[in-house]
Specification:
Blueprint: H1 7-44, H2 53-82, H3 92-105
Helix pairs in contact: 1-2, 1-3, 2-3
Amino acid sequence: MNETRNPARQGSGDVSRRTGAVVCALVLTLGNVVAGYLALLAYTAEPAGPWDSEAIAHSGSAAGLGLALAVVTALLSWVFVKDEWLSRWWFTAPAMPALAGILRLTLLAPGL
């Protein structure tokens, strides 16, 4: 049986694929922006003096939250790239806030 394809229905797959790619890109962009903002907050929290242990705690919590969100965004990136909705360069975006969070929690942690 030779089925003829309707040209109007062929284009609907492209539209849904593009819509899915745009939605995935928006979700990942939002996650990466929030993770980057949390990493930025972690770096702006500096103790005012030897008594200011709250600033160190706030820096650590902001870095930890940013790192956790970067991991979630990286896992979402993996799913979206595996489904071929997005290209592989989307893996680099969550790597930057993740690296910044790891550095802030380890080597660049503020001290009293």
